[in-house]
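Form P-L/3: holo structure prediction, ligand adenosine-5'-triphosphate.
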Amino acid sequence: MSQIIGIQNLNHYYQEGKKQKQILFGIDLQIEPKEVVILTGASGSGKTTLLSLIGCMRSVQEGSLKVLTHELKGANEIQRMQIRRRIGYVFQHFNLLDFMTVEQNVMVSLELQENFSHPQARNQSREILTAVGLGQHLDAYPRDLSGGQKQRVAIARALVHRPRLLLADEPTSALDRQTGREVTELMTRLAKEQGSAVLIVTHDSRIFSASDRIVRMEDGKLDIDYQGQLSIALPTLTDKQLFELIPQLKMLTFPPGEIVIRQGELADKFYILIEGEVEVIQELPNSKSKLLKTLGPNTYFGEIGLLQETKRTATVRATTDAAVKVLVIERYDFYQMVVTSKMTHALLNYQAIKSLLIRKFKTSYYKSMTN
Ligand SMILES: Nc1ncnc2c1ncn2[C@@H]1O[C@H](COP(=O)(O)OP(=O)(O)OP(=O)(O)O)[C@@H](O)[C@H]1O
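OUTPUT (holo model):
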């Protein structure tokens, strides 16, 4: 099956007075059939702009954006409308029509499609409303329903025409924690059963575990693949544990030669190296130092001080030829991670002991050579 969304080097600008302000920068993103992807990031980072471009609500200015195999760059309003009808949408505030019953709200979506007779539309609407647990509320009006029920109607309306793509914009922000999770699980399960891909824009980290992949935006750019990077460095973490950790991560950049960790300081962070190389150096009492090892991408450091609750046992410094990028996990989140994942705890302990033993061996060898 072909890709549901294919984006290459997409830029977008808004007019601000006489100037153009760039909002999206070189976005590349692919979404495959049946994939559930969460798009998250700080307020103002450009998520809604990207979603509205994918949802054919704006015209594409620069780059390539293919939705359901149609190139949207250069598409006119009529072409965009035709593709729009093949997509399902779920919004933050449900957007139900108050003067229509639950069943009518869902049927409207089908009647916009070509080739649907009224009885067919009714049968299909009842079927999906039963699937979302509202088979007993067909004649109710939106005002008679709870927030969670309204969102279920919106999900039924979005999926009734079996779109191959479902877009959801902050679908849980008007719901309590439990309802938000239930509604998201229902939405993603039904979408997958129908073979639809799902793209959800959300700040709500409680629903991250309902997705296959999380994509983060920062200042109009797509961030690195946190999930992929973490699972390479720490393969012992389950997807659920990864999703819990991702919202707590911070990305830091250190210029060439800069110190990331200083020997003797209190250990308060754990680091996963994403780009560049670092040198692990032992400062010796005679004001000399010894290079213990060099680490490259997809490795980690900083675990010894945290696991042993001691001060840093070595200095870690970016090599002089390139800047390094690290993902930082704060002390509290590190302890949460090792408490929830015994395998990760065992792996980190094993690595820490191994590093310390090698260090001890190297130090005695160094002493015997210099004596
Ligand atoms: N129509 C517009 N005209 C000018 N600037 C806009 C317009 N819409 C959005 N922006 C600006 O574009 C940037 C990105 O906005 P966007 O709504 O896409 O971000 P977001 O990540 O969805 O934010 P939030 O999570 O708060 O909804 C913001 O700086 C916003 O102020």
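COMMENT: The CA atoms of residues 46 and 220 lie 5 Å apart.
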